[in-house]
Amino acid sequence: MKVKFIGGAGTVTGSKTVVESNGIRILIDCGQFQGIKTLRELNWEPLPILPSTIDFVLLTHGHLDHCGWLPRLVEQGFKGKIYCTSPTKAIAELILLDSAKIQEEDAKRANEGNYSKHEIAQPLYTVKQAEKVFPLFRVIKTNEVIVLDAEISAVFTNAGHIIGACSIELNLENKTLVFSGDIGRDNDVLMYAPTKPKKADYIFLESTYGNRIHPDTDAKAELEMYINNTVAKGGTIIIPSFAVERAQMVMYLLWQLKEEGRIPNIPYIIDTPMGISVLEIFSNNRKWHKLPEPEYIAMCKMFSMISNYKETIETIYDKQPKVVIAASGMITGGRVLGYLEHYIGLPETSIIIIGYQAEGTRGRKLLEGAKEIKIYGKQYSVLANILEIEALSAHGDQKDLINWLSDLANKPTKVFLVHGENEPADALRVKITEKYHFDCKVPLMGQEFEL
pLDDT category, 175, cuts 50, 70, 90? Predict the structure, then answer.
């Protein structure tokens, strides 16, 4: 049995891990690389294995960095089954269509504006190519054994993080391999705490926040303060948000604040068509989250939901103070860029960063104090207030990740730390080794191991 790391190693994006056993190839996640150019360029490279030789894809969840390369995989010959939960299927379809649409629009804009370095800018994949993925999805139930082959089976268990997210237990050759996927927080506002593994011979654990402890602060109070301070200056609050779960969580906290009379009666806007669609997924999958139906209905009524771009333009040019939640969460594309073009140069504006910002993304650059930011080929001065609420992260921190290992009845042969930049992954390796005395390894991209 072999395992090969062809994505999500040394980085938090592009998650792809290949397991090979007795002629069967299984790909755990099929994510798109994001962030710095050297990573994004990997999306255009062929896989080190032929897609046509992969038998199954097992998806932990529907975020772009875990499912966003599926259209390329299918275009290059993959014809197998893609197993995932029902919410993950719904979210992955939304995200792939949105990603394809943005790429088509960006390529068109680059060609019309003549700012592409290529003779003709091409999208990574088109909407039509994204749609070819959908017939391959197979919906599974959590905690039930899925037989993949005569001697290979899998079990999906709740991982928190976002709706539908799972860890995957893979049983083959009398060994148990556990892939954490992205682990949510033990005390998340909307998601239930992750299910801890009971046994594992090999563990593949994410390490996004392997060197961080989330501050024990009151996110609601921070939101309240930032909004009131900005409105007092006559400014607009822009919250770049991941359309899945983060947007809904911020909506819920804002609704609570408004109900409690702690924030002013100004327009509250959600401008992410995908985020609005995800609300329906929340409504259809109540067992996956903690949000009671009456509160869900009341929360939705509070917000102006924008789906067409004409309304976006009208909102951008409306000078009154307002709160706008817009995708994307790392400011890599989407509606939020239109708002930033107009508002980032205004000192009364506040931009609140609420999630992980990968290396090389605009969000990371803003947090690191960039004085200028490039949008659609043009530089903009950063005069807005750049704020961060760390307590709203959807990823477990170092304590959560270490705690996730605490129910193991056996000592695993090896723990591979994936889906993290090198420094956080190594910090987590040291902590796990100290606490549990497990053999930990931080694999490099492209490395292969015999298990």
Answer: very high
